[in-house]
Amino acid sequence: MRLIEQVIEGSIRNRAMVVLVTLVVVFLGLHSMLTIPVDAIPDLSDVQVIVVADYPGQSPQVVEDQVIYPLTTALLAVPFVKNVRGYSFFNFGMVYLIFEDGTDLYWARSRVLEYLNQAVDRLPKGVTPKLGPDATGLGWVYEYSLESDQHNLAELRSLQDWYLRYELQTVSGVAEVASIGGFVKQYQVVVDPDRLASLSIPIQKIRMALKASNSDVGGRLMEMGETEFFIRGKGYFRGEDETDIIHQIEQTSLGLGEGGRPILLKQVADVIVGPELRRGIAEWNGEGEVAGGIVVMRFGENALAVIDNVKKKLKSLEAGLPPGVKIRSAYDRSALIHRAIDTLKEKLMEEMIVVTLIAIIFLLHIPSSLVAIFTLPAGVLISFIIMKAMGINANIMSLGGIAIAIGVMVDASVVMVENAHKHLERDRGRKDHISIITDAAREVGPALFFSLLIITVSFLPVFSLQAQEGRLFSPLAYTKTFAMGASAFLAITIVPVLMYYFVRGNILPEKRNPLSRFFIFLYRPLINGVLRFPIIVIILSLGVVALTVIPYKKLGSEFMPPLNEGDLLYMPTTPPGISIAKAGELLQQTDRIIKSFSEVQHVFGKIGRAETATDPAPISM
């Protein structure tokens, strides 16, 4: 108690220093509020690292036996890993490593890389496992599609893969840009087995010949005329158009035949331009297939800033697209973030205005009311400083904690100002102003400080929550605790100083305040009756508590409150083994039906997986 009194006395004696420090803190709070990462909801994802391994042409069972099983057994020994989950698909497999809460993501990724180096020797030749992006389940922040009536799907996919994707990956905060839909262009060699057999050429020889014919080689240096020249052999298939390149591939020599004549590739195979095997399709509004991209945000980044920067980058890249190609936004989380944050800002402002009006009405002295409500913006700004330092972003849960605390933050200041009014009413003229304010603050300051601390620690049990529930509710508990702690500290530092400057002049005594007289008139008979019949009051109170059991048993339960995002995810599934063509047909029919509703603005359909480790969806989903 004595320590708190000394803090109050020291603050009033060093008024200029306290005001200066408070202004600096307010400035830092404004800076933190404007630069803190913003998202709609807390990231509930576990700390996970994804390992991807491609094994082209192999069935899921072969991928499981030869790739995923060796990887999972080797990665079980990674420190602090909770679960290792392996998934096998046609052509590739994935291993998900789930780490204990609190594990640093980049530390976990470095440990996984160490253990991957030990597992490489156990994998088939040519299989090289790699890490997925440093992103979480909430990383898909923006999706777009490419459309054109002058270009086919292969050309659109090429624009996405070779132009947009690399440019977007330079945006700060972007971990990966995954391509989806369209056709990946390939030069395909269709071998005729009968012609191969007639010439006694094994198919492996064709692969080796193509590999040898499509490569550049380097030589040594040659000096001529006091100048060095690099010697190299240019052997890549190059041409002005597809026909020229196909012709070069067809001229690949497979060896010598009868009479020493060379056997060319075109004698045993046809060379065509075709699409790579597809494991994912994108569709728009039921009108047909499109190519597109998914922007995956890096872990811990500011989602709103990343989305804004991506949209600016796309705007600048449109000038480099061929005529007729349009970029359409398919999913944009920034709209949800703005709506969620704007709603909370509106409610916070409403709460502050209501508290301000009530303080003015009851104190009937505007300068004194300003002292009381100063703790609201100051306490909120201090909360933002601590939030940013601890890496807590602004979302509906963290800002909700501040909203809960606002009604209580101002209590200590109001009581302290009212006590100063009492002291001025009693001691004005007998003591100097600074003594009156000091005595008033010392009288109630310690009790108010500890009462706020008690409220501050009331949310400590929330910090014991683990896993998803802990990640959901801990931001709310943190910010509520920060705001209450800040208001308790302000109540014994800057509030007494502001009382010295503003609580003066013509202050209406309590007995002449009509509101105070009215509520005292109602309160006195009520408190007298309660104290006169204590047993009856206790019995009635217990009865009310007992009655709450009835509605409590009828209450439903939900992990998260409803969130009207404005975007709906409809995810039907089909029987396993459906073909990509049939899956695309069903996708287009579904999108057309959904788009027929007048409330729907647009539909972006996806079946199968995008080219990213964060999307393990099969063709049946």
Brief digest:
The protein is α+β, with helices and mostly antiparallel strands and 621 residues long. It has helices at residues 2-13, 15-35, 60-75, 105-119, 153-168, 193-198, 203-213, 242-250, 303-317, 334-363, 366-373, 375-390, 396-409, 411-427, 433-456, 467-491, 494-502, 514-532, 534-547, 549-554, 580-595; strands at residues 47-54, 81-88, 92-99, 130-131, 140-147, 174-181, 185-191, 217-224, 227-233, 253-256, 262-264, 269-275, 280-284, 289-297, 326-332, 604-608. Strands 5, 6, 13, 14, 15 and 16 form a six-stranded antiparallel β-sheet that branches.
Q: Can you walk me through this structure?
A:
By secondary structure, this protein is of the alpha+beta class. The chain is built from 21 helices and 16 strands. Strands 5, 6, 13, 14, 15 and 16 form a 6-stranded antiparallel beta sheet that branches. A hairpin with a 3-residue loop joins strand 2 and strand 3. The chain is elongated, with a radius of gyration of 35 Å. It starts with a helix and ends in a 13-residue tail after the last strand.
